[in-house]
Amino acid sequence: MYKYLEFFGIDGVWVGVDEISLTENMINIFPNPVNKVANIYVSVAEAGNLNISVYNSTGQEVSRLADNESVDTGEHIFEFDASALSGGIYYCVFSSGDQKVSKKIVVIK
């Protein structure tokens, strides 16, 4: 957006989070809502290190699916076991290089 405004000669001070370029459908979770196990499909735009964590609604990490894992460009599948979690809303956070995205996961019991 900044480049767009700059094109029209609009200047200013920007405060907040920088926009991050993401590939379409970088993360897909199926099934969602989940009762026991969900598959997390991740599309990686460039080879690098991959982090995937799941957080509860208070921000506490409840699962780490990938911890600085080296991956190649392409599709990857990770299994998320929600069987020990309480029902509720969780957030799956994916990051690789300068890319970051989060998706909501609903756990039902």
Order of helices and strands: HEEEEEEE
What fraction of the residues are assigned to beta strands by DSSP?
over 45%
Let me know the average pLDDT. Answer: 79
Number of helices: 1
**Widest beta sheet: strand line-up:** 4-3-6-7
CATH structural class: Mainly Beta
Number of strands: 7
Largest sheet, in brief, is:
4 strands, antiparallel
Structural class: mainly beta
Rg from Cα: 17 Å
CATH superfamily: Macroglobulin (MG2) domain
Provide the number of structural domains. Answer: 1
The name of the CATH architecture is: Sandwich
Tell me, what's the shape?
globular
Write a structural description.
6% of the residues lie in helices and 53% in strands. It has one helix and seven strands. The strands form two sheets. Strands 4-3-6-7 form a four-stranded antiparallel sheet, with no helix packed on it. A three-stranded antiparallel sheet has the order 1-2-5, with no helix packed on it. The protein is globular, with a radius of gyration of 17 Å.
Tags for this model:
single chain, 109 residues, mainly beta, Immunoglobulin-like, four-stranded antiparallel sheet, three-stranded antiparallel sheet, 1 helix, 7 strands, globular
Provide a short characterization of the protein structure.
The chain has 109 residues and is mainly beta.
Q: Layout of helices and strands, plus pairs?
A:
Elements: H1 2-7, E1 27-30, E2 37-44, E3 48-56, E4 61-71, E5 74-81, E6 88-96, E7 99-107
Antiparallel strand pairs: 1-2, 2-5, 3-4, 3-6, 6-7
